[in-house]
């Protein structure tokens, strides 16, 4: 199941609590309103009956009623009875067929069929010997029905309220988390481009929106600035040290060559000088690699692309490496399967360095009497190259790190005795492939060997002609 984003989680949480609070408020309101409706209905009934006494007059011994007595005000029906409980005037609501006993000053609830009624009786003395009875009747069911309509209307509006609340919550959360998205995008760009000069750039200059997220963005920018400065110092240090070491190492190599020309040296002395010469040469190679990577990091490594026949160039490199493998005496064989006439725009020197690194590594880590295979073919718009060996292989946990500088998978990957491996070759390979717009990957199984595959953009003849023009 796909994990929900923080925006969705916060929106759901906000909407849930808003709906919960709204429903609780409505429940309390409707509970109180239900009792209030009944109480209000009773009050209106009693007040209407009491006010109706103003509409009853006794003139010259004759009973007179104002027209207001007959009107149904606030859903209250009035009727007038004499002392013998005989109906005189007024109205009785339709559906109220019973004739309950009079209860002076009391409000009673009477049910007729599916309808509930409130009945209020009051005696009114017109003269010393003349008393009449007023009865007021109103429907409780109708009052509750109007309240039920209000309740249903509220329930109908509740889903719309949920949608509006969710929409507003999402917009608010999205706006609030916008700086977080900016931080995430910037970090992804830095990881993709390895460019520590990028900044998030959402600093609140006015101080109006100073909150934890803006503080986090400022902290990220400060950290990136410090990291950038640290890496720049490291690059400069590497470049300076490599330049400074080139001269003394060159002197050591030159002196070793001069000493080896002395025929009076004993075999032991000659062996010791040759060992010094080899280690100095190894150091010279490391310095050369460091200078290369340092120039690459600083954007000063020149790239001279030409329209090359990679098939012919790869074949020549394989033949040279095959000869070196035969001289090594470990019985490692190198063969190739190269598709003819594969052309691409590439830097010849860098391509040669890249392929030599891959093949020499494969030979180094092959077993005795092992086998190294080199292939080159076209697939779609790419030229795919592969260098495969049947050597000691690399553990899966170490595989993602082999492109890092000075990284050694483990102590068992030492190659043949006396061989120097600085851990810089594969870093150069990756940089060379990427600067040509391609990609490189590695596959390996311990004890079965490794396969390095690189892909470079292929060019057709028409593109070559356009490039020359």
Question: What features would you describe in this structure?
Answer:
This protein is of the alpha+beta class and 469 residues long. The chain has 9 helices and 14 strands. The strands form 4 sheets. A 5-stranded antiparallel β-sheet has the order 4-3-7-6-5. Strands 9-11-12-14-13 form a 5-stranded mixed β-sheet. A two-stranded antiparallel ribbon has the order 1-2. Helix 1 runs antiparallel to helix 2, helix 4 (212-260) runs antiparallel to helix 5 (267-297) and helix 7 (348-364) packs antiparallel against helix 8. It is rod-shaped, with a radius of gyration of 49 Å.
Brief write-up:
This protein has 469 residues and is α+β, with helices and mostly antiparallel strands. The chain contains nine helices and 14 strands.
Distance between the termini: 55 Å
Report the uncertain regions: 410-420, 461-469
* SSE arrangement, N to C: HEEEEEEEHHHHEHEEHEEHEEH
Helix proportion: 40-55%
Oligomer: single chain
Largest sheet: 5 strands, antiparallel
Shape: rod-shaped
Q: Which strand order do you get reading across the main beta sheet?
A: 4-3-7-6-5
Beta fraction? 15-25%
**CA radius of gyration:** 49 Å
- The helix/strand class is alpha+beta
Q: Average pLDDT, to the nearest integer?
A: 79
Number of strands: 14
Distinct helical segment count: 9
